[in-house]
DNA sequence: ATCGTTGTTTTGTGATCACAGAATGTCAAT
DNA sequence: ATTGACATTCTGTGATCACAAAACAACGAT
């Protein structure tokens, strides 16, 4: 996984950075900056960015810089309408195909999420949550569906992770995971789907609330450099976003 | 639409060629060939191909030529599972949002399809069919969903169109379109979804049958150059696939 | 003080070149 | 005749260069 094409590694790195919310919404990713940060030529960076644009993870108008799309209420609604449909389908398909080992892993993830919630360790919770859903959907025997779901995650990621790190959640969203596990044991595919859909709906409602809050209070602190309309005139200096990457930046040459 | 970036124009051209089934499944698209066919440098072609790979319309292993993926039963199943879910969702969402003009267009398309069927004009039928579904889904007020559906069409396209041009269809799949229109008038979203799903299922079942037939009879004539396993040793001469394009090939220079 | 204008810099895009890995084609040995 | 190794060609990938459009900043007019 570490080898392969340079552009594919850059793609993976950018993808992970996006999922971790290491880029500000609205932030412009400039080819030459990233290239110098990685110590490569602009070429593979260009390819990686174009691929992310093709997947909808980044937005780029014809002749302008590529930006990470800010989350709006409209986009959020669209995203969750599709997520509900697709992840529900994956869950339903996965039910009859899930193996004993997979089910064991799922329950282990639920346990870890419980523990993380009690420790108020959001980071670990989110990681276990991702693994839970991925392991569940992974059993659906439909790689195409899986790819689509992952591309959707990539589009929510930047917004999702950023908000969750700030928010203290006294809410219990692990109940739906437990419910899903029970339904999996029963073999009730509809119930599995319903549990996953409820999980998504619950989580989505919470995030929508946070989004509304952030929209009302337009960046009181240094955060959120760009609003929904047009990006503010904050000019980013070269190499600024380099710190957001894994910094494999081999000895800034030049 | 005709202007914009070179790579975007190439992308659109390739996309259309793919939708029209002008490329053989399994055929390898080589950068330099397409570039010389268009009279451009290999660079924008590379970008366009990579974008199509990112969307799943083409498949490409790391260091080898990009190919149009052959349709297999597994892939077909995966594709239609997702299509059913997504297009059903789009139809359901579109129902309460469809305008009077859109509905008029939909019924006009149905009429045209009827006429085309009686004339056994498959070409016109397919075009009207595309317009019908696109117009319906277009009312769903979810551009993201629309993009996903179009990318799915792009993946079925090469297979879909090729088979339909060969097959004489005495089947009546216009009934579901009519049913959808009636449900739209009633405002019964579930019924609209059901009609569209039935349409897809019916069409999919037919195509699956043809696929099975083609799989059993492995290319008795000159068609189908490559099978599912490994591509045959048919070595394509440069410029062969150029005829499949719009041939904007400006005076082969050199 | 604000807005329109102009000159400079930045930044994406396309072309050409260079390199490495894969595929193919040839030839010799069994 | 088939199979193995070897040489050649092809093809994707990355680097560097050149150009045009967009963004930015400074300036001048109202």
TrEMBL record, chains A, B:
UniProt cross-references to Gene3D superfamilies, sorted A to Z: GntR ligand-binding domain-like, Winged helix-like DNA-binding domain superfamily/Winged helix DNA-binding domain
One Pfam family matching this protein: GntR
SUPFAM superfamilies, sorted: GntR ligand-binding domain-like (SSF48008), Winged helix' DNA-binding domain (SSF46785)
Xref: InterPro entries: GntR_C, TF_FadR/GntR_C, Tscrpt_reg_HTH_GntR, WH-like_DNA-bd_sf, WH_DNA-bd_sf
Compositional bias (Low complexity): 224-239
Positions of the UniProt region annotated as Disordered: 224-254
GO terms, molecular function: DNA binding; DNA-binding transcription factor activity
Entries under PANTHER family matching the protein: HTH-TYPE TRANSCRIPTIONAL REGULATOR MCBR, TRANSCRIPTIONAL REGULATOR, GNTR FAMILY
Protein name: GntR family transcriptional regulator
Organism: Pseudomonas mangiferae
């Amino acid at each position: 996984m570490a080898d392969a094409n340079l552009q594919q590694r850059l793609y993976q790195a950018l993808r992970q950075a996006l999922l971790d919310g290491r880029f500000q919404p609205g932030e412009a990713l400039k080819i030459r900056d990233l290239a110098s940060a990685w110590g490569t030529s602009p070429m593979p960076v260009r390819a990686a960015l174009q691929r992310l644009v093709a997947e909808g993870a980044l937005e780029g108008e014809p002749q302008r810089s590529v930006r990470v799309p800010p989350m709006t209420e409209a986009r959020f609604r669209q995203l969750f309408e599709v997520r509900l449909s697709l992840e529900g389908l994956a869950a339903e398909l996965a039910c009859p195909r899930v193996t004993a080992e997979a089910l064991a892993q799922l329950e282990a993830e639920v346990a870890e999420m419980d523990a993380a919630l009690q420790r108020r360790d959001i980071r670990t919770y989110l990681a276990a949550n991702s693994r839970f859903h991925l392991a569940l959907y992974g059993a659906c025997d439909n790689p195409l569906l899986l790819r689509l779901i992952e591309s959707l995650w990539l589009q929510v990621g930047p917004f999702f992770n950023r908000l969750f790190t700030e928010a203290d959640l006294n809410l219990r969203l692990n109940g739906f995971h437990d419910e899903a596990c029970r339904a999996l044991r029963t073999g009730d595919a509809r119930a599995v789907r319903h549990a996953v859909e409820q999980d998504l709906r619950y989580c989505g409602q919470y995030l929508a609330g946070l989004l509304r809050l952030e929209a009302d209070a337009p960046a009181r602190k240094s955060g959120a450099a760009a609003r929904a309309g047009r990006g503010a005139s904050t000019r980013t200096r070269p190499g600024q976003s380099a710190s957001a990457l894994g910094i494999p930046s081999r000895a800034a040459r030049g």
